[in-house]
Amino acid sequence: MKTLAEIVVVALSLLGAGFALIGSWGLVRLPTTMERLHGPTKATTLGLGALLLASVVYFQTQLGVWSAHELLISLFLFLTAPIAANMIAKVHLHRLRSGAANEPVGIAGPPPRPDAEGDWATFEAPARDTPASTANS
Angle at which helices 44-62 and 69-98 pack, to 10 degrees? Predict the structure, then answer.
């Protein structure tokens, strides 16, 4: 039974390290903000989750200690990483729309425009030539 637990811990550790490496590599190598978001939010989150699961299995099977710390860290990570990525993406789209962002065209190209009936879920860019915008400033 101990050998099976060791194999599971090693497999989860290698899987987690591989995901973390690929996510970190994507964060460094991809050229634009929107493309860089995928590295830390997807691959690195899965990598850290696998490493934390390996830690739970190790301490339970080898030392007989049960700790919820790893599970709480995983829960916090899986709840906050997508929310943070969504907020970063919204700020980036808003900066692109208002002309504040200056980035090279990435591998995936520019983000597609929404159809005529919809719009991005960001704040509107300020209108520069309307009388209402000059009256409020």
Answer: 170
